[in-house]
Amino acid sequence: MQQWQATRLRVIAGIKRSYFQLFVVDRSIEVTQANQDLLNGLVEVARSQVAAGRRSQDDVLRAQVEVSHLEAELINLRQQRVSLVARLNADLDRPPTTAVEPPAEFEIRDMDVALDGLLAKAATSNPDLEALKHQIARDTESLKLAKLANWPDLTVGLEWIQIDPRAAYKPPGKQTTGVRPRASQLSENGSDNWAITFGFTLPIWFDKINSGIEEAKRRLASSRAQYRAAQNRVASSIEDSLERVESQRELALLFHNTIIPQAEQAYRVSQASYTAGTSDFLYVIDNWRKWLVFSIQYYRSMGELERSVADLEQAIGLSLSQAREP
């Protein structure tokens, strides 16, 4: 049962990781396409500046190079999407060409869980730990049985022999007198035989008995050591996953609430300055590129947040909603 549960958790976590990686790729495609349209507009602004004689042709060429670079990025992202969809369909036991709709937008999740509570839940829900608990219980009983070999075995038995009825036995008559002697008639009615038996064995092979006890002790000690190692491994995985979840959540909030709005504002101001002829085109491109990179990094932090949640749930053995239940 524990092995089945462990496999189930591993498959679910793998599907979630692929799904949120697909989310990152789809959002990156969306952002890149939007920036491609934005950059095409910037090319037109540069051309109008060149036509007015206020800028050189270099500005147009720089913008066109950036447009071509974005096209190359889109080709790469689309290839990644095909690979991710194939992997996701394989995990879901579907044909690799089955269409997968782009994952919907979602909000940054709240994390109102504590490490101690998650560790307590994992102690009773992680399938690897549960399997080792059963192994320890089995080895404990094996040790008890091995110690019982020091005691003599007493056996009590009951035997029953069925006797079928038969015809009366008639012994032959004596040759001298012709008289038949008397014979027992007990077996003529098929009377069954009963017997009660008693027996006991003495534990005289002490070396063999002690070897069995020591072997049982070593198996039990090994199982307990495996359980402690598994506890440490699960605790480390939970702590690491929870730390990554909280870090990615803080990073996503920082991008969403502060960095991206500031980057967009910086680009808008530099674009207006360039149009007014008071700013350099390289400054505009630099601000635009930062805005693009920060927007993609925001979605990557969102995807990594959910992928870390999948790792955390696998280590606990429960979903976060179940782990919050008292």
Secondary structure layout:
Elements: H1 2-51, H2 57-91, H3 115-125, H4 127-147, E1 153-161, E2 193-201, H5 206-275, H6 281-316, H7 320-324
Antiparallel strand pairs: 1-2
Report on the architecture of this protein.
- By secondary structure, the protein is mostly helical.
- It has one domain (2-136, 211-324): Outer membrane efflux proteins (OEP) (Up-down Bundle).
- The protein contains seven helices and two strands; from the N terminus they run ααααββααα.
- The chain has a two-stranded antiparallel ribbon.
- Helix 1 (2-51) runs antiparallel to helix 6 (281-316), helix 4 (127-147) runs antiparallel to helix 5 and helix 5 (206-275) runs antiparallel to helix 6.
- The longest helix has 70 residues, at 206-275.
- The chain is elongated and about 160 Å long.
Write a brief structural summary:
With 326 residues, the chain is mainly alpha-helical.
Note the main attributes of this structure.
326 residues; mainly alpha; Outer membrane efflux proteins (OEP); two-stranded antiparallel ribbon; 7 helices; 2 strands
Helix content: 55-70%
Q: What pattern of helices and strands is seen along the backbone? A: HHHHEEHHH
Secondary structure tally: strands: 2
Find the structural class using helix and strand composition. Answer: mainly alpha
Percent range for β-strand residues:
5-15%
Side by side, the strands of the main sheet go: 1-2
> What gross morphology would you assign?
elongated
CATH top level class name: Mainly Alpha
CATH superfamily grouping: Outer membrane efflux proteins (OEP)
Mean pLDDT: 87
Please state the CA-atom Rg, rounded to the nearest Å. Answer: 41 Å
Name given to the CATH architecture: Up-down Bundle
